[in-house]
Amino acid sequence: MRPVDDFDEVEADVPDIKPLTADEARQLRERHPPVSPWWVILGQASVGALVALAAWGITGTTRAGWSAAWGALAVVLPAAVFARGVTRRGVGANPGAAVAGFLGWEFVKIALTLALLALAPRVVQGLSWLALVVGLVATMKTWWLAFLIRAVFRRKAAETLNTSARARAMKD
């Protein structure tokens, strides 16, 4: 019987990892540029405003609109603080410090979200918890919107470049 700590079979299943060359890494970054966290936050704020207006319009009460808006604020404000903290200059100089900073700002974001939710009954008159949760969840789940918009704009830009390249080729 083989010992339990024999990892020969596991190692056989692991594919060989080939590091990228500098040129391959550059091409990968060009094909997949990072999304700015500020675009994500802008998308979240926009969706939060739309949800608040929808809550107000559907229920006919301003308290539902303000409750949904507070739920959106409980996502957007902490996300903005987090983004500011992790994107400021000099953060990525030391990888260990970058990880510690990321975790620290994530803790600040969570604490700020909980504080805003705890303040909600005192700030929003006639708070509707259902509208607040809808605003919170809808805003929180819209991070993908920035990626979708970026993909659409990138596709349109590529089509524009291809069209102008074809037009130049036909002209020559």
Describe the structure.
It is a single chain. The protein is mainly alpha-helical. Helix content is 78%, strand content 0%. Helix 3 (37-59) packs antiparallel against helix 4 (62-87), helix 3 crosses helix 7 and helix 4 (62-87) runs parallel beside helix 6 (129-140). The chain starts with 7 loop residues before the first helix and ends with a helix.
Please describe the topology of this protein.
Elements: H1 8-13, H2 22-31, H3 37-59, H4 62-87, H5 95-123, H6 129-140, H7 143-171
Uncertain segments: none
- The averaged pLDDT comes out at 83
DSSP E strands, number? 0
Shape: flat
Quote the distance from N terminus to C terminus: 75 Å
Short summary of the structure?
This protein has 172 residues and is mainly α.
Considering the chains and any ligands shown, give keywords for the structure.
single chain; mainly alpha; 78% helix
